[in-house]
Automatic annotation (TrEMBL):
One Pfam assignment: HTH_18
Protein name per Swiss-Prot or TrEMBL: AraC family transcriptional regulator
Tree of life domain: Bacteria
Coiled-coil region list: none
Record-annotated HTH araC/xylS-type domain positions: 241-346
Organism, scientific name: Pseudochrobactrum asaccharolyticum
Length: 358
C-alpha cells in the first residue's frame, strides 16, 4: 500500500487554495505576487516536511532551514504591501533587499557554522513576529490596500501570522528543552504536528489576505464598457480629483455609506468606473483607503444622530451604516478621540452650558 505522508495532504490543500485564489486574481496586479509566492513556498516547505519525516530523507533539512528564513520576511512584506497606497512602493528594491539579509545569513551559516543556523532562525522568526504584531498594533485602518469589507479579515490574518511566527519560536525552545531532558524523544512528533498546523494556519491567513485584496480590484460588476485593468491607461491627477468629487456627492446626496454591505465593487458600479480607479483616486487624493473614507462618513452621521436624537447607541450604530458595534466603537474613537457615550455626554453638557442664563 502506498504511504502518503500527512504533509503531502497539506500541500494538496494549499495548492487547491492557491488555485482558487489565482482564478480570481487580477492580471497585472504585481503586489499580489508576495502572497502568491508566500503560499507557494508554504507548499514547498510542506513537501520537504513530508520527505524529511515521512520518508526520512535528511538531505532536505538545509533547504528547509533556508526556506524558513525566507518565509518570515516574505510574510512581513506581504502584509506590509497592504499598508501602502501605491503598490509599486511596496515592491521597490529599497524596500525588499533588507529582508534578503536573513536568508544570506542563514545560507552562510549552513556553509560554515551549521550549529548556529537553528538559533539564527529563532531570532529571525521572533523579530518578524514582533514586527507584524507591531504593525497590527496600529489597527485595521493601516491596511489601506485591503478591500472595504475585508479589512478586518486581513487584519486578523496579519495578527495570526505574527502570533504563529512567535509560536514557532516557543516550539523551538520546547524542542531544545526536550533534547536537554529527554534526549529528543518527543521532538519528531512535536516538529511534525506543529509544522503541519503552522503551514495550514499560515497558508489560510495568506489566502484570506490575498482574497480580500483581489476581489475588490477585479472588474466585478463594473460597467461592461470599462476596459480591463491590465489595459487601462493611468489616470491623471485631474481625473482622480473628479472621481473623488463625484464620490463625495454620491455619499452626501444618496447617503450610500448607510449600506452596511457596501464594498468597493458596489461603489465603482454606481460611479460607472473600474474599482481600481476609484481606489487609486481615494488613496491619492485623500491619503486613505476606501474603507476609512466610507467610515468617516458613517462616523459623521453617527455624530449627528448622537447630537440631534435620543436614539440608543446600538440603533445609531446600524443607522449610520456600521455592521457591528465593535467596528463602530473603534472607528468612532479613531475619528473623534472618544467613545460614542462620552461624545453624547459632552454634547449634552455643552448644550446645558450654552443655554444657561448669564
Amino acid at each position: 500500500m502506498l504511504f502518503i505522508p500527512l504533509p503531502f495532504v497539506v500541500t494538496i490543500l494549499l495548492a487547491m487554495l492557491l488555485w482558487q485564489l489565482l482564478r480570481k486574481r487580477e492580471t497585472g496586479n504585481r503586489t499580489d505576487q508576495f502572497f502568491i509566492v508566500l503560499i507557494s513556498i508554504y507548499m514547498v516547505q510542506s513537501v520537504l516536511l513530508g520527505l524529511r519525516w515521512g520518508y526520512e530523507i535528511t538531505a532536505v533539512l538545509p533547504l528547509q532551514i533556508l526556506l524558513a528564513s525566507l518565509i518570515a520576511g516574505l510574510a512581513y512584506l506581504s502584509f506590509y504591501s497592504l499598508t501602502v497606497p501605491d503598490s509599486t512602493l511596496a515592491l521597490s528594491l529599497k524596500k525588499i533587499w533588507p529582508h534578503l539579509l536573513p536568508v544570506m545569513v542563514i545560507f552562510s551559516l549552513l556553509l560554515f557554522r551549521r550549529d548556529l543556523a537553528a538559533l539564527a532562525i529563532i531570532v529571525i522568526f521572533l523579530v518578524y513576529g514582533v514586527s507584524l504584531l507591531w504593525l497590527a498594533f496600529k489597527g485595521p485602518d493601516i491596511l489601506i490596500a485591503a478591500r472595504l469589507d475585508g479589512v478586518l479579515r486581513s487584519y486578523r490574518a496579519m495578527q495570526i501570522t505574527g502570533l504563529m511566527l512567535i509560536g514557532s519560536v516557543i516550539v523551538d525552545l520546547l524542542i531544545n528543552l526536550d533534547f536537554a531532558r529527554n534526549s529528543g524523544h518527543y521532538s519528531p512528533a512535536i516538529i511534525l504536528v506543529t509544522n503541519i498546523l503552522s503551514l495550514l494556519f499560515l497558508g489560510t491567513a495568506a489566502g484570506v489576505a490575498l482574497n480580500n485584496r483581489t476581489n475588490d480590484e477585479s472588474g466585478g460588476e463594473a460597467e461592461p464598457h470599462a476596459q480591463a485593468p491590465s489595459t487601462e491607461a493611468a489616470l491623471t491627477t485631474e481625473q482622480h480629483v473628479a472621481i473623488v468629487a463625484e464620490l463625495d456627492d454620491l455619499m452626501r446626496e444618496k447617503q450610500l455609506y448607510k449600506d452596511m454591505e457596501l464594498n468597493l465593487k458596489r461603489i465603482a458600479h454606481r460611479l460607472r468606473k473600474p474599482p481600481r480607479h476609484v481606489s487609486e483616486a481615494v488613496n491619492r487624493c485623500r491619503a486613505m483607503s476606501v474603507s476609512v473614507y466610507v467610515n468617516n462618513f458613517r462616523v459623521e452621521e453617527a455624530c449627528r444622530l448622537l447630537r440631534e436624537t435620543d436614539e440608543p447607541v446600538t440603533q445609531i450604530t446600524f443607522a449610520s451604516g456600521f455592521l457591528t458595534k465593535s467596528n463602530f466603537n473603534r472607528e468612532f474613537l479613531r475619528v473623534t478621540g472618544m467613545s460614542p457615550k462620552a461624545f453624547r455626554s459632552q454634547m449634552v453638557t455643552s448644550d446645558v452650558r450654552d443655554n444657561a442664563p448669564n
